[in-house]
Amino acid sequence: MLVASRKLIEEIGQSSYIALITGFWYEYSLAIPNNYGFNFADRTAKFYNEGETKISTSTWPQVGRAVASILSLPIEAEGLKNEVVYIDSFTVSQRDMLNSVLRLTGEKEKERTITKEPAQEVFSTAAQRIKEGKREAFANFLYSRIFFPDGCGDFEHHKGTLNSMLGLPKEDLDEATKVAIERQKAQATGKH
After folding, report:
1. Which residue, 105, 85, 99, 103, is CA-closest to 6?
2. DSSP letter (8 states) at residue 14
3. Where are the beta strands (DSSP E) in 32-112?
4. Closest Cα partner for 48 from 146, 124, 156, 181?
5. φ, ψ for residue 83 (rounded to 5)?
6. Nearest CA among 37, 146, 139 for reference residue 98
7. How far apart, in whole angstroms, are the C-alpha atoms of residue 38 and residue 99?
8. pLDDT per residue over 94-116, tens digit each?
9. What angle do CA 137, 96, 88 make, to 5 degrees?
10. 190 — pLDDT class (breaks 50, 70, 90)
11. Which of 7, 54, 151, 177 has the greatest number of CB atoms lying within 10 Å of its CB?
12. pTM here?
């Protein structure tokens, strides 16, 4: 659908596009236990595979800066017309996320319960559940796929990013993790 839409835009020739890929939003995804696998209140984490697969992910502020920067480019932005482009805040593993949580909370890894599930199995199970009409499986379907060991979730190293060209700053992982922890707490208490 999206590819067909982009091709139609190019064929008509009256306008153009720049498709911006940001990966999943970090503070949103980390705050929802079913997404990146962390439940801060229960001190649990569900790793896909061994938790070592790196993925590219972006914070909301970084996405905002990227959009603002793209919109400020000249209309005939050199090399970007009718292209798919990538930005990110971090390329991290679930293990990196856990280490950030531990730095912020002062806890030790042994104080947390960590389970491991093969990403491919989670994906297959979720696909079957979706076919059965169980829409709540959709998050598992999406998130497990980016943690496949084929590297599909790591576009920083496989596709490259426009972070430098757009003047995007290097962000602090712990600051973004802190936002996610507070967000999850607020959701649990109904104060979001």
Report:
1. 85
2. S
3. 38-39, 44-48, 55-58, 83-86, 90-92
4. 146
5. -125, 155
6. 37
7. 12
8. 999 999 999 999 999 999 999 99
9. 75
10. confident
11. 177
12. 0.90
Which helix H or strand E contains 116, and what residues bound it? strand 113-117
Question: Helix 119-131 to helix 138-146 angle, to the nearest 10 degrees?
Answer: 150
pLDDT digits (tens, 9 = 90+) for 44-96: 999 999 999 999 999 999 999 999 999 898 877 768 888 899 999 999 999 99
What was the pLDDT predicted at 27?
A: 97
Q: How far apart are CA 46 and CA 144, in angstroms?
A: 11
Amino acid at 108: K
Distances (CA, A) of 116 to 39, 85, 119, 139: 14, 32, 9, 17
Neighbour count for residue 127 (Cβ, 10 Å): 16
Q: Are 93 and 54 in contact (CB under 8 A)?
A: yes
Q: By the 8 A CB rule, do 158 and 59 touch?
A: no
143: helix, strand or coil: helix
Residue the block writes with tokens 């009718």: 82
* Axis crossing angle, helix 173-189 with helix 94-105, rounded to the nearest 10: 80
